[in-house]
Amino acid sequence: MQRESQITGTNFDFVDAMSGEEDFAIAFTANVMKLHGKSLDSASNREKYLALADLVRTFLSKRLADTEAAYRQEQKKQVYYLSLEFLPGRLLAANLLNLGLQQVCEQGLRRLNINLAELIDQEEDPALGNGGLGRLAACYLDSMASLGLAGHGCGIRYRYGLFEQRVTDGYQREFPDNWLKEGRNEWEYRRPEETMNVRFGGRVRTIANGKLHFIHENYQQISAVPYDIPIAGYQNEIVNTLRLWSAEVDVTYQACTFDRHGKGCINVIADKHATESLTDTLYPDDSVYEGKLLRLKQQYFLVSASLQSILRKHVVNKADLRLLPEKLSIHINDTHPSLAVAELMRLLLDEYGLGWAESWDITTRTISYTNHTVLPEALEKWPIDLFQTLLPRIYMIVQEINERFCRELWDMYPGDWQKIKAMAIIADGTVHMAALAIAGSHRVNGVSAIHTQILKQKTMSDFYQLTPQKFLNITNGVTHRRWMLLANPDLAQLICEAIGDRWIANPDELQHLLNFAHDNSFCCAMAKVKFANKLRLAKYIQAKYGIAIDTCSLIDSHIKRIHAYKRQSMNVLHIMDLYNRILDNPHADIVPRTFIFAGKAAPGYYKAKQTIKLIHALAEKINHDPLVKNRIKVVFLQNYNVSHAELIIPGSDVSEQIPTASMEACGTGNMKFMMNGAVTIGTLDGANIAIWEAVGDDNIFTFGLTADQVLAYYRNGGYNPWDIYHQDLRVKTVMEQLVNGFFPYPEEFRAHYDAFLNQGDHYFVLKDFAQYVEVQNKLANEFINTELWQKKCIANVAHSGIFAGDRAFAEYALSVWDLAERPPCLRQH
Ligand code: NTF
Prior knowledge:
Blueprint: H1 2-8, H2 20-36, H3 45-74, E1 78-82, H4 92-99, H5 102-111, H6 116-120, H7 132-146, E2 151-156, E3 161-168, E4 171-177, E5 189-190, E6 196-200, E7 203-209, E8 211-217, E9 220-232, E10 239-248, H8 265-276, H9 293-316, H10 324-327, E11 328-333, H11 340-351, H12 356-366, E12 367-370, E13 381-383, H13 384-390, H14 392-412, H15 417-423, E14 426-427, E15 430-432, H16 433-439, E16 443-446, H17 449-459, H18 461-466, E17 471-473, H19 480-486, H20 489-499, H21 502-505, H22 520-545, E18 554-559, H23 568-584, E19 593-598, H24 606-623, E20 632-637, H25 642-648, E21 654-657, H26 669-675, E22 679-683, H27 686-695, E23 701-703, H28 707-715, H29 721-727, H30 729-739, H31 750-758, H32 765-783, H33 786-798, H34 805-815, H35 824-827
Parallel strand pairs: 1-2, 1-11, 2-10, 11-12, 12-16, 16-17, 18-19, 18-21, 19-20, 21-22, 22-23
Antiparallel strand pairs: 3-4, 5-9, 6-9, 7-8, 9-10, 13-15, 14-15
The protein binds N-(trifluoroacetyl)-beta-D-glucopyranosylamine (NTF).
Family: Belongs to the glycogen phosphorylase family.
InterPro entries: Glycg_phsphrylas (IPR011833), Glyco_trans_35 (IPR000811), Pyridoxal_P_attach_site (IPR035090)
Pfam families: Phosphorylase
């Protein structure tokens, strides 16, 4: 009772606090009847969930309308965050928390003998993103609303989300993620009256009568229908929107022609489905660019529909277009929406009749860009012919931008063709999207200090030299409301009891927890919370996979996309080595460990899929070996999503963050583990470095090559992994085990073996292996000293304040979007 009122408060406007639960129960029962024509007794949990979500939506609706009206009246500067991906996670629990309804709802349902947690479990977890980039976008939406800033997401309403992963015999299989089974999502508002039309293909005719006019003809026009998902701020009455666009064709007025084949309306309907397939699926590649026509089409569809509707709203409000940069900001999340630069130019030039210089000035002052990766395979470069055929007018504009840009470069660097070519937006038969994004933005940011440094010194060094004032770093942040209050309510409660609840509004206050590092009763209570979370996780694993895990064991989790640079395979090699130590000495004193893996591999990424197979082969071998005596368990959780992360992170002791240094732009899982008291084992890359700086050497386990060392190796042609093979018996043994029948699949892991030994070990797994094993041993020894370990956990939570999304977002507000008001969490600094 006390706990809930402390961390959620109650803000239920149509009932007073005393009778709230009862009225809630009545309203809920009536809603089940209204929605399903059923009494509560005969309604299924899914039906109850839908009725509850619908009830909660009524609270959101009013606030959504009020927020919109208030913004209009105050003429507040708006931010539009354009992203091809959003991973919002389940919304019911988040909305209850943010609306302050958690307590009244939980208790009202309890009166009806309904367990809220069971209804929460009925919600689909929308998988409209691949991983970190999409989840970050969702965290920022939460922060924008919670800080009371007018920030909205613009994305695509994919009919099917990221594929559902099922593993059979260790092999990943993909199934469509049919998240809109019922045809709609319970949170969204369809707004057909705000439909925009997006044009593809055709040709452009130029007419010169005093001024040049560009007539776009013979194009295919596709309707973009917006669906708005309300995003509630944390107990502040604000509700912003996430606007998702869907490709739709209205055939009501389309005559069916009955030709001699007698097909009639069949053709019309078939065409409708073909056109609408534009927004059917999310591309499942993470950090890899897929040069497919449909992807470019999706990018333009999102950008064009969003910008048309943003400009229309601006003009309807009778605002001057020249004031656009003062009235709104358009942010592009990685290069995927960078067509926004050309589309904004098109709208200003062709639709609103402005001149080039003025349009360019408005565009560059309105748009800003975040880069999220330096991996070359993720850099988008579209072939000219494909680009030009699909977007003829946009291509003309990109050509003009490129010409003017190159002229400027020529003035700066006369004769330096090589430099100009390296920076050109159109070069080598392709359109370079990152170059377009940089040229068209007034701010370009990286997502961690080291990543920004690599952008400045390497990946974008020419651009940095040209316009250093554009570049800045904003280290990512995540919402502690979802990742602490919702995912780990017992920890949140414990913290409130110790230091009060001000940390919820200002996570820097978590520092006060350091005063409790020597307080036995607090340390005990914290250990108890962790144990309860481990138990919850263990129960899930037992129920789902029939694997019993030891809740006293060290739970070590590696959960993220499966990718060679994230080095799940190095984790596997360490577990093999640990196992070998038991085989060599069955009585070896080994700290009991549970290794948890979860993550999807891109369907076309053979080696990543084989890593999943390898993890399963290892689990099969170890989990059933009587010699191991349950001292090691390996578990792979299928179909990793936001909800799984909410379960695994609070129940973990150790957070695996072991990418090849220089490759992980930032990482955000690392922050979520940290704020839940897990200790990081990590390389000095991305935000791991910031975590290390925050917690100090004693509270993190770092190892391996630094980014500078890795980059130096690349410059000098790599290293020879066979040297390590010959020097380190442990490495030799695990390498041989990949191919010598140790696993009952002799040729299955040949690709891994070859990548490590015969192809130069591009990700430096063998190079970092010895140090990794060493810190793993150190970590296990420190884990058994529970007092010492508890202090590490506290230090991690206490120093996690700077990784709150509110801090990151506030930095954007101040340094990128130039929002007039200072967000509250920056006011005190
Ligand atoms: C990801 N980038 C990075 O790989 C992560 O390190 C980072 O934490 C997140 O972005 C969020 O910034 C991508 O997913 C992409 F698409 F850019 F490759």
